[in-house]
Amino acid sequence: MVREHRADGTEPTDRWWGSYAARASGMIASEVRALFAVASRPEIVSLAGGMPAVDALPLDAVASTVADLVTSRGRVALQYGSAQGDPELRARICDVMAMEGITDAHPDNVVVTVGSQQALDLLTRVFVDPGDVVLTEGPTYVTAINTFAAYQARVVHVSMDGDGLVPDALRETLTRLAAEGARVKLLYTVPTFQNPAGITLTASRRAEVLEICRRAGVLVVEDNPYGLLSFTGEPVRAMRADDPDGVVYLGSFSKTLAPGMRVGWALAPAPVAARLVLAAESAILSHSMFTQLAVERYLATQPWPEQIKAFREMYRDRRDAMLTALAETMPAGATWTRPEGGFFIWLTLPDGVDAKAMLPRAIAARVAYVPGTGFYADGSGRNAMRLSYCYPPPERIRDGVRRLADVLRAEISLRQTFAPLATTNPRATNPRATNPRATNPRATDPRPAAPRTSDFRDQ
Ligand SMILES: Cc1ncc(COP(=O)(O)O)c(C=O)c1O
């Protein structure tokens, strides 16, 4: 063991401090994690976490499915399985994807994973070398950023508007990166009911994005855990449906059944699927047969489409409660997205208001949210936040939004009082803003970036 001393000569309390791999050394505790521990108190309305409302699940049906499984197929369910996943479940997963227009999926090209999070991890592991570029929407799913950072990728954001990822911005980014000699490996996108912005990429842009990536030789990773939770009831056609070779599709039962099952999957072109299976073998040997078969049996024996319909209606009511409360209470200058499905609304605050700085005051007022900076690798998103409507019931959502609006009004009036001291230009007050590397080394540092722990472990 390498024994190191701190600058002041004291020994670190962790005996293994000097032995960690370089990629582990940059893990830092979140600045806001302590506040999130407080946010789980019952008196606080949490609009922060993205937890599905599992209490809406028919637990009796889950219990009888699991009991039947143990009695009828216990010897299989409690045994090791393969790293690729149970064949019957993979066939059922193909039926699920057909609901989103993917009609040519073959079970051989499906790899069952421990949630879609593991699929993302395995994909990054097989495609990304330190310093390779992963393109993502800005903002994007926080744990994806952390996964890419763990493999020392360089995350580069491509801007979005109300129609999703902007194709011109994607073209410009690719041109700029090509000029730099950067190796762009993946475009990671959540095109449908995005986490965190709630935005859906339009059909015409989907075709354009696929074409741009095809020409640039960039693999598209379509992460789609919310696709079936459409509030219009009309499923959105998956990008993968129109490009079997250029897209790896990630799916999950976490939002349409239960995240505790930890069953997700990747649908990939055959050679990619084969590599994912090898990577899965070294990571987990075999996925839990128990939860795979429990999901398979649940889908086979229970009215799962009805269940999804009930989820959709519940989440739509919650979304409506949040949209109405925002319209009734938010001060001028605040804007927000209007999701057609999924769990999240992205709230942009009036110029100059810093969502992260405001969070302790919001928590003191008994409401929590996730500041926007968590969803960027480059320190952007200071005047934005993600609001989740998935978990609290409508009356709690209304209370939470009202409290948030009061905190925001107080913040704005404070800024107005001290206007001569303040500025709306973050670059003027924050030297880090002029140098994104100082905020987050993952943004522009060509060297391998160090991973960090997630600010928001529950998504
Ligand atoms: C966009 C996105 N991708 C992946 C995941 C991970 O989901 P799973 O539970 O399937 O690992 C989440 C979870 O919230 C998510 O929002």
Quick rundown:
This protein is α/β, with parallel strands linked by helices. 42% of the residues lie in helices and 13% in strands. Strand 3, helix 6 and strand 4 form a beta-alpha-beta unit.
Describe this structure in words.
- The protein has 2 domains: 26-56 and 306-455, Aspartate Aminotransferase, domain 1 (Alpha-Beta Complex), CATH 3.90.1150.10; 61-303, Type I PLP-dependent aspartate aminotransferase-like (Major domain) (Aspartate Aminotransferase, domain 2).
- It has 16 helices and 14 strands.
- Helices cover 42% and strands 13% of the residues.
- It has an 8-stranded mixed beta sheet, with helices on both faces.
- α7 runs parallel beside α8 (203-216) and α11 (304-329) packs parallel to α13 (394-417).
- It is an alpha/beta fold and 459 residues long.
- It has helices spanning 22-25, 33-39, 59-77, 87-98, 115-127, 142-150, 167-180, 203-216, 270-284, 289-301, 304-329, 355-364, 394-417, 426-429, 431-434, 436-439, and strands spanning 45-46, 110-114, 133-138, 154-161, 164-165, 184-189, 219-223, 247-252, 263-267, 335-336, 344-348, 367-368, 370-371, 384-388.
- Residues 50, 115-117, 141, 190, 195, 223, 225, 252, 254, 259, 264, 459 line the site of pyridoxal-5'-phosphate (PLP).
